[in-house]
Design goal:
Blueprint: H1 20-31, H2 42-54, H3 65-74, H4 87-100, H5 105-119, H6 127-145, E1 158-164, E2 167-170, H7 171-179, H8 184-203, H9 209-215, H10 222-237, H11 246-260, H12 265-273, H13 283-287, H14 297-314, H15 316-319, H16 329-338, H17 340-346, H18 355-363, H19 367-380, H20 386-389, H21 394-407, H22 415-434
Antiparallel strand pairs: 1-2
Length: 437
Amino acid sequence: MLVANEAEFIKHKEKEYATESEKQINELCENFSDLEDKSFTKTTKEYLSKKEKTISDTIQFVCDFENSLKSIISTFANTTLSLFADDKCVKEIKNICEYENNFNLRALIFACQKAADIYKEIKDIDNEFAKAIFYSIVAFSLKMNSGKDIGWKGNSLFSPYLGFGQYPLFHFCYHYIMEHTFIKKEIESAKKDYREYKLNAQENIYSNNDLNTLYSYYLHYEKDLLQALKNIEKDLKEDIIPYVEYGKIANYIISLKWDLNIDISNIKLYLINNLKGKKRELEMNIRISSGMEMENDVKRKEYLELQEEMVMSLNYNRLKAFDFTNTEIDDFCKEVEYNINEFHTYREFACLINIENFIERIKNCSPAQILRVRRCFGNVYASVNIKEILFNDKDNIDKLILEIEKLLKYDGLDNVQKLQCKWFLRNLNDISKKLEY
């Protein structure tokens, strides 16, 4: 008896044709034929030949996924983790696997182990927070197992991109999985933010026929849908729709735009402008609201870009030093020097800077001003554990490095200015290394 994952033995290769004409004829024939013309690799042919001579019967074994998952959870003997072994939770976890198109049990064992470890570090953990931790780690483990990009994408506390739906991956979980250490001070902040998000979602149940029409647009006549959008635009203009709805509205209007070619530009502007300077706690509602799955990259890109604009608007008061509309380098440096603690508190600095505008200002700096900028960056990133505080900054620091390298070849700078830029480049490279995981 041979027990094996036969899918690992059966491999195909691209069909080879002598001419382009032969290829076209074969493809045409396949369109009118029910027969599969598979081209196996040499190793596969050897395996099938030996199998034919030695094995008389093949029995397919199909895993009972739900019972297997229950069994895996029970082996950890963790009280909190065992809450998710009931039928309802197992079906929810199965939905995550279906979404990720990955049912790898080793990845689920890994997720259970990490979640069990994390639960031991959290006092008085409530069920909702425990579920968010476990479900997001399941999604992250499946992504990691599938070879997807698992670089951190998110804010200082959570990443909706690495989690699943309303279960974002918390940064303290990500850090534990990747670095095997806990950032305990993040746990309470994440717990508080997630609790507020759930309360907002429960307490701000907003009944609005026009929004209900938008959220089920695929069930309505076009004229009714257009009227609903007109009413929603009017309500947004008057700022009477709760902000907790904005993330969901963003999701559906972009789906609507691409499915029905409807202009949503005014609604997008109201979603951004109405949030200007509002509570930071709303960020989670914007980033992880329920909605339609974005099935293609173009939709998803526009949706994520709108999310980012909404979050930037939400944090408007913090960003005023970085827009460079009327701000020169000296004013920028003054803001940085007086607000270093604020940048550390909000865990953002370089990621807020408009690199293009920043470089334009650097071109007009004296050597002394460039030195002042260097000192500002040095002070912001002086902390030994800065990668735990400003981990979101690495991408913009790396972009800034590329732009400063170009400045070294810019004819508008004299040799002393270039010398300061060269030293600034060295500083930025050191910062980039400190931010590496």
